[in-house]
Specification:
Blueprint (H helix, E strand, L loop, with lengths): L1 E6 L2 H14 L7 E4 L2 E7 L4 H14 L4 E10 L9 E9 L3 E4 L2 E4 L18 E2 L13 E6 L7 H11 L3 E3 L2 H11 L3 E10 L10 H19 L2
Parallel strand pairs: 1-3, 1-4, 4-11, 5-9, 9-10
Antiparallel strand pairs: 2-3, 4-10, 5-8, 5-11, 6-7
Length: about 230
């Protein structure tokens, strides 16, 4: 089986590379042989545009058995504190649309796209593959994807009321969109680095989130890839 592990940035995926290098040898660039399986590492860039380009180009050349996206996220939910690791059940583009004075109108409300046209389900990009990974017992969450991270009280309140998200990222919905369109099994795994609140970097826990993310990844890959 060939499994791709993707991340927006090198920092988010570097600990996994270090672990793979300690237990195996690269067979071709960032491809590692693990118990008869190929794990391929790919950095796809920050934001939806870079994610769509790099992932689509790679999938046109090779179709793996599964694609994972790992990385950091902000939390809207009090119970999802910094350091918590989650899997994403459904995601959506939360800032693609138009402003109408103080209101935000997404592309579905504007009539520019159909909320139930594939791959959307009522505007959401739903992962149908979660049950295929029973070894991964993480909270399953609802996410939004934005290109400008929420950092003001008004933006946070509007997005929370509009979509009731539990987490926020800059790439997740783009990842879901590409994988659904290409009909490849996929899974998005995120670690909470901070609460979604007016921007205060002193409260961010990036190192803890990355450490916890990769502890989960190592334990899960060890259990899954037998």
């Amino acid at each position: 089986m060939q499994v791709w592990v993707t991340a927006p940035t090198d920092r988010e995926i570097h600990p996994l590379i270090t672990w793979l290098q300690s237990i195996s040898q690269p067979t071709d660039g960032q491809k590692y042989r693990f118990r008869g399986h190929d794990i391929v590492i790919k950095t796809t860039g920050v934001g939806a545009v870079a994610t769509v380009f790099h992932l689509s180009r790679a999938l046109q050349e090779t179709m793996p058995d599964c694609v994972l996206q790992i990385g950091l996220a902000g939390s809207y939910a009090a119970e999802l504190s910094p350091g918590t690791v989650v899997r994403v059940q459904r995601d959506r583009l939360a800032d693609l649309g138009a402003e109408d004075h103080d209101r935000f109108l997404d592309v579905f409300t504007l009539g520019l796209d159909a909320a139930d046209a594939f791959p959307f389900q009522q505007g959401w990009l739903v992962n149908p593959h979660l049950q295929a990974f029973p070894e991964l017992t993480l909270p399953a969450v609802q996410a939004i994807t934005v290109q400008t991270v929420s950092g003001s009280a008004s933006t946070i309140a509007r997005r929370a009321a509009g979509y009731h998200p539990q987490i926020e990222t800059m790439e997740g919905a783009a990842f879901h969109y590409v994988c659904l369109q290409m009909h490849v099994p996929f899974l998005q795994i995120r670690a909470i680095s901070n609460y979604v609140e007016p921007r205060d970097k002193s409260k961010w826990r990036i190192s803890t989130a990355i450490e916890n993310l990769h502890q989960v990844m190592k334990q899960w890959l060890d259990a899954w890839l037998r």
